[in-house]
Amino acid sequence: MQRLRLAVLVSGDGSNLQAIIDAISTHTIQSEIACVISNRKAAFALDRARKFSIEDYYIGIGNYPDEKERNEVLYDTLIRENVDLIVLAGYLAILPEKLIQAYKGRIINIHPSLLPKHGGHGFYGIKVHESVIHSGDKLSGATTHFVELGIDTGQIIYQKTVKVAPDDTPEDLAKKVLKVEHQLMVATLVAIESGIVKIGSEADQNMPQIID
Ligand code: GAR
Question: How many domains does the chain have?
Answer without folding.
Answer: 1
